[in-house]
Amino acid sequence: MAQPEPQPAPLLVISAESRMRHPRRFVREAFADLRASLPTARSLLAQRLRQRYRHSSLGFLWAFLPAAFVAVIMTFVRKARFPLFETGSIPPQVYGLYGIVMMQSFLEALNAERMAISSHRQLLSRQRIPLEAMLLAAGGEALVGLGMKMLAVAFVCLLLAAPPAPTLALGLICMLQVLALGAAIGVGIAAWNAMSHDLDHAMMVLPWVIISTTPVFIRPPQGSGLARVHAANPLAWLIDNARAYACTGAGSPALLVGATVALALVLMAAWLVARLSLPYALERATD
Amino acid sequence: MDRPLLTLEGVSKRYSRNHRLNLRYGLQDIAAEAAGRNPERRLRTSEFWALQDVSLEVCAGEVLGVIGHNGAGKSTLINLAARVQRPTLGRLVYHTDRVIALDAHGGLSGAQTGRENIVSKLAMHGVPPHEIREAIPELIAYSGLGEFIDAPTGTYSQGMRLRLAFSIYTRLKPDLFLVDEAIGGGDLRFRGKFQRFLREYVDEGGSILLASHDLYLVQMLCRRCILLDGGRVVEAGPPETVVSRYEEMMGAQDLDLAAAKKADRKRKAHQASDRGPEASGLEITATEMVGEEGPELIPGEPALIRVHCRAAEAIPKVNWGFELACPEHFPLTSALCPPEYAVELRIGDNVLEARIDRLPLMPGEYDLHCAVLHVPSGAPLAMRGYQTAPDSFTVDAPEEAGMNILRHRQGVFYLPVDFGEPR
Questions:
Q1: Could you point out which of A147, B18, B131, B147 has its C-alpha 20 to 30 Å from the C-alpha of A258?
Q2: Is B238 helix (H, G, I), strand (E, B) or coil?
């Protein structure tokens, strides 16, 4: 009697079982998708950059203008000897310039990642394209934006004859930390954002709340209420540390190392949350 | 035994109808999965099963058709198979990783250029970078897109998208295509090319899970088919049988509407009366249309029309005629017996009969309206179905591909054609 042909072992089984019952497999698949998504991420990034400035009369100048505008304002403030502005040993124009550049980059990274699922929902719900491509492209766009803004900062510093500190490279790493914090928050809430318009409404107010609780333009007097609020804000620590390393060299190495490790973990956790949430977000996404 | 490529085992998927509850359920489900809990089997408020306990297998070299009305669960099935969504219950077992979902966009990203689509598609399916670089010029030439290759595919015509998609998929040679209404928006030429592409792919041993409303395509490509209704598989088997059942289901829905209208018409008609025995001494007691060998009426088969009438006195010469009607048309057609075929009616019950060699009616329900006329004056002696309710008859649907397509495309009548002897 002929033996029945053995059933080949399945290559993949997708079940209703929680993926968290096999966390190692979940993480292994995440990294495999991350690797596979790189070409798509590259082309998406190029596409996003082209789209971003294509329909704008000033094109890439928009990357410089806010920073340049802040520099002009701060110059005016300094000349007017406005009493509330205290920026320590850093010239107020430079202080404000770094502040606005980092705050802009933080918000850009947060928003780009927050929209990563909702803005590609049509594509993601038709094809199994790794979410990582969208997340990387969004992060890349924020990174390119930061690079453009840093060119504006360099230009203004040159005009003001305000040379950077020798620890500028560490300052740039701290700026990347600011970007990573924004990206981590955005990635973490991307699925929620796809399922509801609540965050769109919240983002009308949230930037102002963040700006008012972060030393963007001014440093509040020691012991003041605002100083205590800043002291409780991790974003404020990162921005202050970046500015200190870039301008005076008096940054905190402990904060630099600690924040790097913490942000790497937070970013990875947010990525895995987004990955876990993606199918739910796609089936419940709002139009 | 055929090699299975994809097996669905008791797969169910639930959705919520209530958008307000969507966010809450979504966050609950995410939290539950993060905590390692499996989904519950019950439905929460406003939820429904988009797919329920679906089991099927797609084997190598097989085209499995999935048909059903809108909302039956076809797209959910394809989305689950494409791994865009996850099942609520059950599991999907893949014996291949070369599965490609093909939709109305050709499976391409509209935001990316043609060249970018080539790179990302090939990379996503594991083609090494150096092979991608080598393949690009060949694929561009094959697609015939020329300088348009660097424009976003969202700006392409559907034909251009398809050419690009064909060239990429020809290079990828997937084991299984998942096709969801992929050709819905295309023109006839486009549809023809797409069908040829799928035909060639199948002839070369490819497999397709095809969810479509295009019953012609389904019957052309599939040897097996399933019918979804309310998320459940209600019929599975050869496409002719399944498509026929689908048409019956759709017809029944139409008939429910028509029946309501008809009942109303009958109620009104019963309040009036046709010319009866009081006036002429002749009453039509019944009319019927039946098959020659039984009550079933089949398009293209012989049919008999009978008029049963009762005469109070003998009438030496009468002729008769009838009209057929359907809910959309009155009359649909009519026939009148020529005066030279006039007959005599005896006292008592009489039957007038006519034969239709090959019934040209489409499957459906029809009304029969009859009149018996005096010869030579032509004055009506009795009528049935004009001021009283008409008698109805049903033409059944044969299980054959041609008829299924004709019904699906809402053909008006059946043309009994003799194509000669089979060779």
A1: A147
A2: coil
Angle A253-283/A23-36 helices, nearest 10 degrees? Answer: 90
Task: Output the DSSP codes for A41-63.
Answer: HHHHHHHHHHHHHHT-TTTTHHH
CB contact under 8 A, B34 and A44: no
Sheet holding B348-356, edge to edge: B282-291, B303-311, B348-356
Select from A5, A15, A130 the Cβ nearest to the Cβ of B91: A15
Report chain B's mean pLDDT, rounded to a whole number.
Answer: 84
d(CA A206, CA A144): 24
Domain segments of chain A as ranges? 61-283
Longest dimension (CA), chain A: 101
In this complex, do A14 and B95 lie within 8 Å of one another by their Cβ atoms?
no
| Cα A15 from Cα B33, distance rounded (Å) | 12
- A·B CB contacts under 8 A: 144
Per-residue pLDDT, B111 = 72
What is the C-alpha to C-alpha distance for residues A93 and A70, in angstroms, rounded to an integer? 7
**Yes or no, beta carbons of A284 and B152 under 8 Å apart:** no
Give DSSP secondary structure letters for B4-46: EEEEEEEEEEEEES-HHHHHHHHHHHHHHHHTTPPPPSSPPTT
Q: Indicate the residue among B210, B237, B264 that finishes a domain.
A: B237
Is B202 in the same domain as B74? yes
Poorest-pLDDT segment among A117-121, B123-127, B240-244? B123-127
Q: Which residue is associated with the tokens 């998708």?
A: A33
Looking at this predicted complex, what is its ipTM? 0.81
B31 touching A (Cβ < 8 Å): no
Please state which of the ranges A178-182, B269-273, B344-348 shows the lowest mean pLDDT. Answer: B269-273
Contact between B120 and A43 using a beta-carbon 8 Å cutoff: yes
> Looking at per-residue confidence, does B36 or B188 come out higher?
B36
Answer yes or no: do B38 and A279 touch at CB < 8 A.
Answer: no
Give the number of other Cβ atoms within 10 Å of residue B259's Cβ.
13
Whether residues B162 and B297 share a domain: the answer is no
Contact A46 B23 (CB under 8 A): no
Question: Regarding predicted confidence, which is higher, B373 or A143?
Answer: A143
Residue of A nearest to B182 (CA): A126
Residues of A in contact with B107 (CB under 8 A): 126-127
Nearest CA in chain A to B75: A126
Nearest to B390 by CA among B256, B262, B275: B262
Residues 127-146 of B with CB under 8 A from A: 129, 132
Chain A contact present for B272, CB below 8 A:
no
Q: CATH number, domain at B337?
A: 2.70.50.60
Which whole number is the average pLDDT over B343-367? Answer: 91
Domain holding B359, by residue range, is: 252-408
Q: Does B123 touch chain A (CB under 8 A)?
A: yes
